[in-house]
Amino acid sequence: MRLSLRAEKINIMALKCGIVGLPNVGKSTLFNALTNAKALAANYPFATKEPNIGMITVPDARLEKLAELTQSEKLVPTTVEILDIAGLIKGASKGEGLGNQFLGNIREVDAILHVVRCFDDDNVVHVDGSVDPVRDKEIVDTELILKDIETVEKILDKARKQAKTGKKEELAQLEFIQNLLAHLEGDVPARAFEVPEAMEELYRDMYLLTQKPIIYVCNVDEEAVLDGNQYVNVFTESVSRENSEILLISAGIEADIAELDTVEERLEFVEEMGLDEPGVNRLIRSSYKLLNLITYFTAGPKEARAWTIREGTKAPGAAGEIHTDFEHGFIRAEVISYNTFIEYGSESAVKEAGKMAVEGKEYVVKDGDVMHFRFNV
User: Fold this and answer.
1) pLDDT top residue among 326 and 55
2) From CA 99, how far away is CA 102, in angstroms rounded?
3) I need a surface site. Which of 225, 242, 313, 315 has the fewest CB within 10 A?
4) How confident is the model at residue 99 (pLDDT cuts 50, 70, 90)?
5) C-alpha distances in angstroms, 30 versus 40, 134, 252, 286, 353?
6) Is 71 helix (H, G, I), strand (E, B) or coil?
7) Among 82, 14, 26, which residue's Cα sits nearest to residue 51?
8) Distance CA 66, CA 38 (A)
9) C-alpha of 110 from chain center
């Protein structure tokens, strides 16, 4: 049976990123620009109380080209869900301000986009009275680490009781948890802790806030969007040991781009600013890279669609992103690489040239694969 994209039950991997940072660093302005959601952006703390939620369409020129070649009636890109989470202040880990709400919302996301303010503007007050991205980052880190310490201490109490049996496995877990707690008490995020393979499941099940992968977004003014400024330089040096990605984005520029009506107008504006592409494109690519995500495609006359999966996913798992029946009844996958599809111009031409691969359950899907699944139900 050939894949039908008209199945009623669709199972789509939803990438969820949370925008965090201190109040008035530009989170909501960036959120509005990314999602066109027009969330409240106000010049005072806690303008955002509930997390605003928006969807970003993932730009992918490959999907557009496939839709053109297959003369698809509909083009369905993949999306990223963005949460604009309330600004955090000192004491959040103890419930100060909107701390408990903030920390609870962070638990829901796959990755954190930590916005730090790297621009001067007398018209936008800073919650601490001055611009200092290093200080701002440390405030957020400290509050998240304090909450993680609280979590690990509770886990440690249980582990100590279980370790009284003297079993080797439970003693090893106890030692691991104690080492993790000492690491956090050194004011270092959990993501920088080296986790032994045997403890990966235990570590993952702790759901620590500072486990989550992070991208630092330096919100700069128009003049600094290409080469940065003194704030960016100092901040970059401060996180040099974290092996984290840093993006320079001007929320103001992105807001201006979002106000334009057509793709042509947006591209023209981007070129005038001396940029290669909008910041949202770089942000999405960085998020995918951070979470080891790739895209495969299905394409035909009715629909061309992009699907998001984790790198290393085998063919049945990729089929399951479309519908669980496709995974359970998987027989084989017909696979054409994107470059091959473009080279020959159609599925039939690829087949005639003998360039279409037929793969089984152990095939690891590659980024850009164009796939058809055969299955029994």
Assistant:
1) 326
2) 5
3) 242
4) very low
5) 11, 20, 8, 16, 48
6) coil
7) 82
8) 32
9) 6
Q: Which amino acid is at 150?
A: E
Q: What angle do CA 124, 121, 18 make, to 5 degrees?
A: 60
Please report the pLDDT score of residue 127 as a whole number.
65
> What does the mean pLDDT of the chain come to?
84
Q: Which alpha helices (DSSP H) does 206-346 contain, by range?
A: 230-238, 251-259, 263-272, 279-290, 315-320, 324-328, 338-344
Q: How far apart are CA 143 and CA 330, in angstroms?
A: 46
Q: For residue 185, what is the DSSP state?
A: H
Confidence of residue 310 (pLDDT cuts 50, 70, 90): very high
The per-residue DSSP string of 204-216 comes to HTT--GGGS-EEE
Distance CA 85, CA 329 (A): 41
**E strand or H helix at 359, and its extent?**
strand 357-359
Strand ranges (E), 15-93:
15-20, 52-57, 74-76, 79-84
Q: In angstroms, rounded to a whole number, what is the distance separating the alpha carbons of residues 308 and 296? A: 7
Q: Look up residue 93 and give its two tokens.
A: 């880990």
Q: For residues 213 and 183, is the Cβ–Cβ distance under 8 A?
A: no
Residue 308 parent element (H or E): strand 303-310
User: Residue written as tokens 């986790």?
Assistant: 195
Strands 15-20, 79-84: pairing is: parallel
142, with CB counted inside 10 A (0-12, 13-18, 19+), is middle
